[in-house]
Amino acid sequence: MFFWERRVEEGRQEVRTLVGDSETVPVQAPPQKMLGSQGTAAEMCSQYCISIADVKKACSEIKDLIHVTPILTSSILDQLAGRKLFFKCELFQKTGSFKIRGAFNAIRSLTSNTSGDRKKPKAVVTHSSGNHGQALSYAARLEGIPAYIVVPRTAPSCKKSAIRGYGATLVDCEPSDESRKMVAARIVKQTEGIMVHPNQCPAVMAGQGTIALEVLEQVPKVDALVVPVGGGGMISGIAVTIKALRPEVKVYAAEPCNADDCFQSKLKGELTPNPSPPDTIADGVKSSIGPYSWPIIRDLVDEVFTVTEDEIKVKKPQKFGGGGVHEGKNAQLGRGPQGTLGPSQGPRCPVHKAWTLQGGDAPTELSC
Q1: Which residue stretches belong to region Disordered (predicted)?
Q2: What is the predicted pLDDT for the residue at 41?
Q3: Based on the number of CB atoms within 10 Å of its own CB, is 146 exposed (0-12), middle (13-18) or buried (19 or more)?
Q4: Where does residue 322 rank: exposed (0-12), middle (13-18), buried (19+ CB within 10 A)?
Q5: pLDDT by residue (tens digit) across 53-71?
Q6: Is the pLDDT of residue 147 over 80?
Q7: Cβ neighbours of 11 (radius 10 Å)
Q8: pLDDT for residue 284
Q9: Model-level pTM?
Q10: Of the CATH numbers 3.40.50.1100, 3.30.465.10, 3.20.20.70, 3.40.190.10, which one belongs to the domain with range 117-195?
């Protein structure tokens, strides 16, 4: 995620379920309201599956388990973009991505009250292209809970190896959302485990929102954030946090043109999943947004920008002037009708902007 700099009330009940599977847990979409039209931003944000209270609770639950990742800058990229950029380096997070935040919060919510009749789950199950699988495997291992990770057979071998390295059982599936769901449901039934959805689980989404709390502390005058979007768990947590605490700050989504379900959903005003498995080098954002993340994205994300495959490949070596820091397969420079962000292009916004960097586990061939 990246952001630029310029120069927020709590509500709702605690999350009580970890299952965010769209096929088993229906979601009633909140009424659409514009920020500032009725009530406060925090009141609006309290309508969704998570609130700022959930994000703050997640922060207190996981702060002793995660890194406060650094923010880096680049004068070269500032010059190219015509604005001051700040890069939130989640590639330096434990397990190599932001996903550990949500995984830790999900596991903590399962194990924080294990006295009396409540017991640890027999297993936790998820489907993942790799990052969430690694994170959940690591978090579950620390609590002594078996983890079963359903992974597309086409996932990079480095991700599969990492999941096995954390002690989880790997289960292959076909590279489609339907196959992921079907295989995961079968494993949940076989193991009597609990499904922890990678991006539609409220506890996971709240954990990802802690990124925004750190950004607001590290760059208090932030103007806007640009967040890569796949299933929408991270941007949902970030958007709820930002719009509750600093509603004037813009939140932009970025995704590949070849996996533009978020863009299409915003354009059509209704949830519009990718019609087929996307063909994109950005393997970490192939998932479609879901019914838990969509209402938040619909109402709180200001705009969605897309990038072509060639632009993703070209931009990768340019990060930090061709130095050793890169964001791998999950971050994109925003691209709208005007083209890739430049001095006179991109979203109409002030001059200080933040970006989340991921890809600590990116395949080695992507960084050549």
Answers
A1: 318-350
A2: 55
A3: middle
A4: exposed
A5: 999 999 999 999 999 999 9
A6: yes
A7: 16
A8: 82
A9: 0.80
A10: 3.40.50.1100
243's tokens: 């719009």
Please check whether residue 357 is in contact with residue 69, taking contact to mean a CB–CB distance below 8 angstroms: no
Whose structure tokens read 């009940």? Answer: 13
54-68, 206-220, 301-315: least confident range:
301-315
Q: What is the third-level CATH fold of 47-96+205-312?
A: Rossmann fold (3.40.50)
Q: Compute the mean pLDDT over every residue in the chain, rounded to the nearest whole number.
A: 81
Residues classed as catalytic: 99, 129
Alpha-carbon torsion (224, 228, 229, 235), positive or negative: negative
Q: Comparing C-alpha atoms, which of 247, 298, 251, 291 is closest to residue 37?
A: 247
Q: Which two tokens stand for residue 101?
A: 């935040």
Question: How far is Cα 97 from Cα 107, in angstroms, rounded to an integer?
Answer: 17
144: left (phi over 0), alpha (psi -120 to 50) or beta: left
Q: Which amino acid is at 156?
A: P
Contact 44, 220 (CB under 8 A): no
